[in-house]
Description:
The chain is built from 15 helices and no strands. It is mainly alpha-helical and 331 residues long. Helix 7 runs antiparallel to helix 8 (152-170) and helix 7 runs parallel beside helix 9 (175-190).
Amino acid sequence: xxxxxxxxxxxxxxxxLKATERYDECKQVCEDHIxxxxxxxxxxxxxxxxxxxxxxxxxxxxxxxxxxxxxRLLQIKTYEEILKGKPKTWALNIAYLNTSNIYRRYFxxxxxxxxxxxxxxxxxENLKGIPDHSISDTYNTIAKTYNFGKKYDExxxxxxxxxxxxxxxxxxxxxxxxxxxxxxxxxxSAQEDVTNVIENLEKALTIFLKNSGExxxxxxxxxxxxxxxxxxxxxxxxIAIEYxxxxxxxxxxxxxxxxxxxxxxxxxxxxxEAEVLLKSKRPExxxxxxxxxxxKKGLKEIKAPxxxxxxxxxxxxxxxxxxxxxxxxEE
Length: 331
């Protein structure tokens, strides 16, 4: 027979099996758990809703997304039956948002992703005392969904609401606020709205710079690098060079990831300097020589054998462009 002690054992066992990646055993324990709950007439109960969630997580681990969705929907159906005629709970909100994300990420289904995200908002609107950071999660999910569906004005509206609640929860200089600005930036990028792209990147950058630490410093470096690339597209090469140099100043570790990023930024500096030189009325040989040195340095670093498997198509195009400019400068 079922009791809370047995329930706790099942939950602890599943946690252990997932942590040790013993997925076949985890599957069996999940099925046994659901069978026990059903046998004890707990078909419509919080324990069975949680058991459906855990079983769904097993299917997520093995990338069986059809069954992942099936058991998340069963979790929702169970919660809705429990709460029929009663106020909706935050647990139901989380279930709705999780299901929205599944439809968006794994099924590319905008209509159902939006349907469940908005169901989550209905819960928020009818519950009192919800922390602002939790309200922000709901706005954020809806914003991501609208962005996925290319409903950009709606996406921006919900991202702004998410920012408002994050500021209420953490203050305007918290890294979570900065990360929300970065998420919103995907919308502006999709709209090719360069003015707002730069403005949002700078807002996020200001926050990360105020909160020095390894994680935030790396985030700042990434933003400097992104700003450099944006300004290349705007042909503002001198400012782009400043941003790439700032990015490099934060990438201080000797590891493959930062070695690759430093090399890429170095190449971009050389390319920007070449553009500035070409626009000069009196191109100086000394400056050309310096650019050659910069490009050669970046190319040597980025072509290191240890980085070969990390080169993306975009990076390979950057290498080709640098080699072409280098060849023209050495003629």
